[in-house]
Amino acid sequence: MHPSYGDVENELSQIAIEVHHLSVRLSRLDISGSPTDAQDQWEATLICATATAKIYTGCERVMARLATDVDGSAVAHADGWHVGLLGRMANPFPGVREAVISRECYTVLDKLRAFRHRERNTYGINLDYGVVVKRASEAIIGFDIFRDEVRIFLGGRESP
Q1: CB 3.0–4.6 Å: which of 19, 69, 135, 139 could bond 4 by disulfide?
Q2: What's the CA gap between 134 and 151, in Å, rounded?
Q3: What is the mean pLDDT of residues 20-40?
């Protein structure tokens, strides 16, 4: 087991709490249907968008930790670093490790990365309720895939 396992596991646990709360909110939307009142729709959209962004941001923190601890090379926070970090985790780091995440996981996380950018730079009234709910559902599935793949990766590594 890699020494980063404990720190990464703590981060995954925190993200899982956010995922749980988002799942509960989505199940309430499924039961009650799409909000028809403008205020209720704005609130539901904002809650789901924010939670989705937080879930991706947590996954990104895990990937940044792996880049530093496993690769021995932190990601410079320059233009495009979010895309670079995600790509780095989806590919082997020559002479150091295999890919951390699969192409499937990369695809889901990349969609969430793009969504997070939009969520951060848009007012809640400009977010499409249907798209937000779809991305929120994808965030839950994506996190499950990500968590499993990171655990497999760290569990399969030997301490230096």
Answers
A1: 69
A2: 26
A3: 87
* CA–CA dist 55, 49 (Å, integer): 10
Domain extents for the chain? Answer: 5-155
Residues 68, 76: contact at Cβ < 8 Å?
Answer: no
What would the two tokens of residue 160 be? 């230096």
What is the Cα–Cα distance from 1 to 5, expressed in whole angstroms? 7
Per-residue tokens: 85: 């970090």
The CATH number of the domain covering residues in 5-155 = 1.20.120
Write down the pLDDT at residue 157: 52
Task: Give SS3 for 77.
Answer: coil
CB 85 within 8 A of CB 60: yes
Q: Residues 110-113: contacts with CB within 8 Å, 24+ apart?
A: 110/83, 110/86, 111/135, 111/138, 111/142, 112/52, 112/55, 112/56, 112/59, 112/138, 112/139, 112/142, 113/56, 113/60, 113/82, 113/83, 113/86
The tokens for 139 are 């965030």
User: Positive or negative CA dihedral for 32, 36, 42, 43?
Assistant: negative
Which residue is it, tokens 């150091």?
Answer: 96
